[in-house]
Amino acid sequence: MQIYEIAKLEVDRLAEETGELANLTIEEHGHSVNSHQVQGEQAVKVDSYVGTSVDLHATALRKSILAYLPEERIDTIIDNHGLLHRTEQTVSTREKLGEELEMVREREYAIDDEERLNGLRYVAAPI
């Protein structure tokens, strides 16, 4: 609840400034859960909404969360939930995921290149 209260205004501002979709997502039980979502004027329509729960490896939002979890927690999440293949671009091996997470840590943001939905690309950063 604290992160929601602190981040809500920033997510709202980001959507307004960019005209795009902005989300606040948290990790819960090895999945990500959208806790706040705002559509800017030019936002694409996607199949997510507040409360949506998605695998952590399949998008930029989720990779930005995974990148900063302890390795043991990442292993547990993968062991429990696997690496579901959603599109041709989905990261679906532990080795590739490790490379992606290392890039997220170096850049301090993650990229989704059609990993969950064909035609959708975006960036995400951890807070």
Task: Report on this structure.
Residues 1-127 form the IclR-ED domain. This is IclR-ED domain-containing protein. By secondary structure, the chain is α+β, with helices and mostly antiparallel strands. It has one domain: GAF domain (Beta-Lactamase, 2-Layer Sandwich). It is 39% helix and 22% strand. It has 4 helices and 5 strands, in the order αβββαααββ. The strands form 2 sheets. It has a 3-stranded antiparallel sheet with strand order 1-2-3, sandwiched between helices. The protein has a two-stranded antiparallel ribbon with strand order 4-5. β1 (21-28) and β2 form a beta hairpin. The longest helix is centred in the N-terminal third of the chain and has 17 residues, at 2-18.
Run of helices and strands: HEEEHHHEE
What's the CATH class label? Alpha Beta
Strand content: 15-25%
| Total strand segments | 5
Strand order of the largest sheet: 1-2-3
Quick overview:
By secondary structure, this protein is an alpha+beta fold.
Characteristics:
Beta-Lactamase; 4 helices; GAF-like_dom_sf; Tscrpt_reg_IclR_C; alpha+beta; single chain; 127 residues; 39% helix; three-stranded antiparallel beta sheet; HTH_MetabolicPath_Reg; two-stranded antiparallel ribbon
Topology:
Blueprint: H1 2-18, E1 21-28, E2 31-39, E3 53-55, H2 60-66, H3 71-81, H4 94-107, E4 110-113, E5 121-124
